Amino acid sequence: MTSPIKLIIFDWDGTLFDSVGQIVQSLKFAAQTFEQPLTDEAAKSIIGLGLPEVAEILFPNVPELHDAILQCYGDHYVENSKGDIWFAGVAVMLHDLKEQGIKLAVATGKSRRGLDRVLGQTQSIDLFDVTRAASETKSKPDPLMLEEILNETGLNADQAIMVGDTSYDLEMAQNIAMPRIGVSYGVHSTAVLNQFAPLYIADNVSDLHQFLKQHIIAS
């Protein structure tokens, strides 16, 4: 890092929000409804991508069903995700970073409607300076959503850091030479995340918070 970090961009599902299990369940429900095969591993592997890309990867042989499958998935997720919450320590971490004058942003594979719903659910709209959903830009690992966040905040890539739990998050940041941190408690393993040269891989939110305080805020 050559410049002080002024902006931290977080992925949502699997990084801030404990929702991976419900996403998998809802994808499998939608697949079963339309008689399409889908394993837990396959469903988990695409978390972080935009919904159109999810449908193309998981159900390539039935493009005519993509809209219906995604609608079924979304309806099931909303109806059954009342227990989804931030990982322990996330609220404390975000408020601490905000109090230190760090700008916060979200870059997610969710739709704008889905992101707005969970921002309201967690009462966190005011915590984030910028949010970007896959439905209003290009899906990860294309870096366009990061570039749009940088443009909106007036910062350069080396003044920001991306935090995420998937290869899509870290590859997206790597594509524009943005510093990045992985978290191992979400979707992808440490071995996968290490392929994208992260500054650090946190095993839990407490580790992530401590690293950010010691190496980002203090720098």
TrEMBL record:
The lineage's top-level taxon is Bacteria
Write out the GO biological process terms: DNA repair
Asked whether the keyword Isomerase is assigned, the reply is no
User: Gene3D superfamilies, alphabetically?
Assistant: HAD superfamily/HAD-like, Putative phosphatase, domain 2
* Matches recorded under InterPro entries: HAD-like_hydrolase_sf, HAD-like_sf, HAD-SF_hydro_IA, HAD_2, HAD_sf, PGP-like_dom2
What Gene Ontology cellular-component terms does the record carry? cytosol
Q: Which GO terms describe its molecular function?
A: phosphoglycolate phosphatase activity
Q: Which keywords describe this protein according to UniProt?
A: Hydrolase
Indicate yes or no for the key word Plastid: no
Question: Could you identify this protein by its name?
Answer: HAD family hydrolase
Annotated organism of origin: Acinetobacter equi
